Amino acid sequence: MFCLQLFVSLPSLITITMKKIFFLALLTAFTMKVSAQNNPADEAPQLEFALQLKVTLGEAFAIENTQHGRRTVIPITGGTFEGPQLKGTIINGGADYQLANAQGRTELEAIYCIKTDDGVYIHVRNRGIIRGGQDADGKPTFYFRCAPQFEAPADSKYGWLNNSLFLCAPTFSSDFKGIVLNVWRVK
What we know:
The chain is α+β, with helices and mostly antiparallel strands. The chain is 19% helix and 51% strand. The protein has one helix at residues 2-37; strands at residues 47-57, 61-66, 69-82, 87-90, 94-100, 105-116, 121-134, 140-151, 166-171, 178-186. Strands 1, 2, 3, 4, 5, 6, 7, 8, 9 and 10 form a 10-stranded antiparallel beta sheet that branches. Strand 3 (69-82) and strand 4 (87-90) form a beta hairpin. The longest helix is centred in the first third of the chain and has 36 residues, at 2-37. The N and C termini lie far apart (71 Å).
């Protein structure tokens, strides 16, 4: 009798097992399709131009051989900035604090304020890395990138600066005595 019950329930067991296999195959195919659609390269952040700062600089001075390396201070004496949503001047009184190690790597932190054309003050803290070296072929390389952070009044039309990440890269010009920083917002 037991054999007969097993024989009768065997087709229903096979049907249940086949349904499970079909369901697992469907789930696997769906998971593979979803993971193929979530390629990290396809999700790379985009950048949009935010502003350009033309920063004038004072005479730099250095504190040699500290326990952390060579400390250089570069006074920020003024300048201008302009972008699609803001424009104004850079306030005198900030500085760029740089710390260089023996391997040719410099960490920088520039702290200063800007003032928009309509009178709104915004605090800026810009941290970055400068690195000179050589590539595999012995050619000189130069890396200089920063990540500025802005502190604007939250209730102003510049409040958007508080809620985004930014990247900047410098450009140098022989007809401008200072540094030009192009800033992009990470979308």
